[in-house]
Amino acid sequence: MPASKTLILVGTLLTFLASASAAEKSPSFSKADLAAAGQLRERALADATAYELISSLTTEVGPRSAGSSGDKAAVAWGLREMQRLGFANVRSMDVTVPHWVRGEAEFSVLAPWPQSMPTLALGGSVGTPAEGIEAEAVMVKDLDALKALPADAVRDRIVFFNNRMERTRDGSGYGRAVPVRTAGPSAAAALGAIGVVIRSISTSDERFPHTGAIRYAADVPRIPAVAISNPDADALARQFENGKSVRVRIRSSSRDLAPAPSANVIGEIPGTDLAGEIVILGAHLDSWDPGVGAIDDGAGVAIMMATAKLISGLDQKPRRTIRVVLFANEEFGTSGSRAYVEALQGDAARHVLGFEADFGAGPVWRLSSRVNSAQLPAVDQIFRALAPLKLARGGNEVSGGADLDGLAKLGMPLMSPDLDGTKYFDVHHTANDTLAKVDPVALRQAVAAFAATVWLGAQYPGEWERVQTVKPPRR
Ligand SMILES: [Zn+2]
Q1: Which of 244, 323, 440, 458, CA to CA, is 20 to 30 A from 189?
Q2: Model pTM?
Q3: Spacing, Cα 404 to ligand 1 middle (Å)
């Protein structure tokens, strides 16, 4: 036999062995499991559970920021609703949370043309003296522009960050804009500023300011920080035209109280032959206080609970255990998810696959993942099972959300039916986050995508291998 022919034969044999081993690593879903996924998808499109849950949570509990009476009521609500839906092992896990109270805030332009504007203190902001603070304002676009100012340009002044967030479907506009809110107050304080006002990290043109957490640096004074809406930021920027000196006043009675008890709420659909492996569905129970947290994150809570409920209604039981975790205090320091990971004590590897819903009430537009490359064929099969929902195929680089970040860093694979965030930041963290902003049709479609994906994740006939490196979350 000529050498070339031998090489071709050997090559063919190697190709055959390689594809045989890939198939062995990523076996196919059974016909019964795929049929059940189709059934879940169809049932979800006609199911009102998720909408009813958001309606109940926003009506009976309403605002539920960490440590508040609403936070406690939300924990009781979660336990009661999980029991009502028939989940197993329903329980709470105690979590201590920071307790910041907003109080009242005012923002006024004093000169050149006096007027006051609706405002919200940023989450965690210190308050002002009762009479407020008054100073000349310095307008900058963002953190880079602040750093580029001459020395002493902001000393004893109030800094106005005037960067407009870009509208995107995947939330990347938020990721680019939000450092002004989290890091802006300390960056300004480090240069001697006495207060900060920001253009809301929001895409809305309504007059609703947008709150959200500050992360104060340890080594500089904590200064008060508030947000104004996009139209008011436009108006404030116009006051600077022609080089006029702009004076503003901030008044805020926000303050910290002692840390308070809260809890993660946990319930399960028990698995069968692989019951020791957990597919975790995460959302957060707390919300910011100006609205009632319908889209952030009542929707995520509802999508996950409805998904588990629909799966529990199948004739077939899941192989792996499906665990819904409603995390305490995502908004102001991810206390619940950190407590959850700490309590695992080396048991993290039992969490074989994670899903998080914290990006509004749908629809789902894309299926992304972060799995070991050997499991990518399984993701492809799941994607094909979702074909009637007409999703796009996303990449394998998803970071998940803030609540599953700790588990993802420990190597847990993630699947992500990506929620469409195009309009999310019109409402998120504002007084306008109400049930009226939830589209029931889009919500049912989102539950359909999650239910079918979670089910197949729980039925996967292969092993969900650990993933080595995970990007940090985008929000
Ligand atoms: Zn959220």
Answers
A1: 244
A2: 0.93
A3: 12
How many angstroms does the Cα of residue 284 sit away from the middle of ligand 1?
Answer: 7
Distance of CA 64 from the midpoint of ligand 1 (Å): 12
Work out the number of other CB atoms within 10 angstroms of the CB of residue 6. 10
Report how far ligand 1's centroid is from the alpha carbon of 99 (Å). 17
- pLDDT higher than threshold 80 for residue 24: no
**296 CA to middle of ligand 1, Å?**
5
CA of 291 to the centre of ligand 1 (A): 13
